Amino acid sequence: MTSGTSKDAAGIRTLSPDEVKAALRTQAVETPSWAYANSGTRFKVFAQPGVPRTPFEKLDDAAQVHAYTGVAPTVALHVPWDRVDDYGALAAHAEKRGLRIGAINSNVFQDDDYKLGSVTNPDPAVRRKAVAHLLDCVGIMEETGSRDLKLWFSDGTNYPGQDDLRTRQDRLAEALRTVYDRLGDGHRMLLEYKLFEPAFYATDVPDWGTAYVHCLQLGPKAQVVVDTGHHAPGTNIEFIVATLLREGKLGGFDFNSRFYADDDLMAGAADPFQLFRIMYEVVRGGGFTPDVAFMLDQCHNIEAKIPAIIRSVMNVQEATAKALLVDGEALGEAQRAGDVLAANGVLMDAFSTDVRPLLAEVREGAGLEGDPLSAYRRSGWQERIVAERVGGVQAGWGA
Ligand code: PSV
Ligand code: MN
Known about the structure:
Blueprint: H1 17-25, E1 31-32, H2 55-69, E2 74-78, H3 87-96, E3 100-105, H4 124-144, E4 148-151, E5 156-157, H5 165-182, E6 188-192, E7 202-203, H6 208-218, E8 222-227, H7 237-246, E9 250-255, H8 272-284, E10 293-296, H9 305-325, H10 328-336, H11 340-352, H12 356-365, H13 372-379, H14 381-388
Parallel strand pairs: 1-2, 2-3, 3-4, 4-6, 6-8, 8-9, 9-10
Antiparallel strand pairs: 5-7
The structure holds alpha-D-psicofuranose and manganese (II) ion.
Residues 34, 105, 152, 192, 194, 227, 254, 262, 297 line the site of alpha-D-psicofuranose (PSV).
């Protein structure tokens, strides 16, 4: 992937139109297996016709997203939601469809045992069970060829005094160390933070600082993941991105939109300007490389899933194109001159550019149709899965 950026104080270089197109051609957005499945809120999960019944069918749907966008070659798995007997067979299925397995997301939040936490639970037996699951996930990485182990912990407390905040950090550090030491060459551990929910008083990994401190102590294979929905309202996420990149600790993103909390709506739907600002800092900080995983983490509760994922991928591409179009030299000049309005104007010019024709050109240059959504709609895939996927149990949260 080409970044066309420099990390020095001068800011970014102005890219030529050909350089922008070349960079866009290298973009990769990872889609999450769970976004293809039924989902909902704690109030109701609405089933949709044609939804995959197995992880294999989720990959079939993901292949459609990649076929029409050309930039979604990897799929994140979530274990146990994507548990299969033979992970090698699942990886081979992905490969046959032009895909690879992306991040392995662990799940230590859905067993009764985890009521008081997983790796930070006061009971050592529960901690051992959680760590064993995380180690299993490393095994799945080996079987599927995945690079990234993504860890999100729902661990925390609901009431002051419920447990010792500091001891819980010690337990967390110990568990992370055990798992980190088991990673193979080329593996990474991506640690995700989340402000609150399900814990309402103190979450054990609530913010980027906590995630960063643990990753720093673990070593170079441990990196922080920024889920855009996991912050307090009004948080300047692009500042976090700039800081993590500056420290070499940004491992990737879970992109999604939020209006209120962890809404998990389509990336770029709620606030395209925020997504642009984030992508600008990515480009500015030299983060537009395969070392930063651009993943989606969202749920399509009421909208059709595959087109919603295509739309999200397109939204990420549009924000990226705008970020790449920023006239870095003019921006740097205005910033050095202290010309507030001119500097802001340079950024806003890029944000206001209609990049859809440019992206259509990039797609057509890659032998794809310019509009992935219309190509998907005409493909007949949606009708086919609705007709063929009858019987069995649809993947999802149950309900
Ligand atoms: C938690 O809210 C999260 O963002 C983590 O990435 C989970 O693994 C994912 O959502 C799926 O529920
Ligand atoms: Mn996430």
